[in-house]
Model the fold of this input.
Amino acid sequence: MDDTQLLRYSRHILLDEIGIEGQQRLLTAHALVIGAGGLGSPVALYLGTAGVGTLTLVDHDSVDLTNLQRQIVHSMARIGQPKVESAASSVTAINPDVRVVALQERADAARLDALVRSADVVVDCSDNFATRHAVNAACVAHGKPLVSGAAIGFDGQVSVYDTRSAANPCYACLFPKDAVIEEVQCSTMGVFAPLVGIIGSMQAAETLKLLLGVGTSLAGQLQMLDARTMEWTQILTARSADCPVCGARRSHDAA
Done:
């Protein structure tokens, strides 16, 4: 690190759990962020300000006026721009050291296979179950930790799915792909603006902890927030023996 970087990251370096070595680890890390909307906004900004060396942002959508109620990485001047380009501009404006790869696309299974393989950690900030399951499957296949968040109305949830440990579940253990789940969207249900900031900030924190090897992650527990009362509920989770995603992976590894 040069003198400017030592000054920029001095408040991290002062932390015994991080120090120069930990900050250097962040500078060489690669985080893949799926979604550049409500959750992706604080994730991209905090990972960028923290100095994560490479951020790959994936989102097919463009900035719309209705996004600006909660998607703090965007602005009025960028309405109509691809969200990934808008987010990249905001991150770079704060920290030009970060390399931001902006991919305006809807990542399918084949694309995710390549993207996840090259990342150190994956952050799922998407807004639909199909994408979440595709991201989860790629993370399990490549043994990459997944930081997952969701927010709708006044309700949010966050967890880490890290199947590098045999005890930890994957996303599909908790939310089976073939389960009947009513999918709701912000356009019809609405979302409390600060909620995505709370959940997204927690995703950023879990991501940095994983990259640094600091503390204990949320793997094996699902944290759920009711923002009406600011009450958190914790559910302990375990791997499902018959999960078709991580169960199949475990059988393959054992063989």
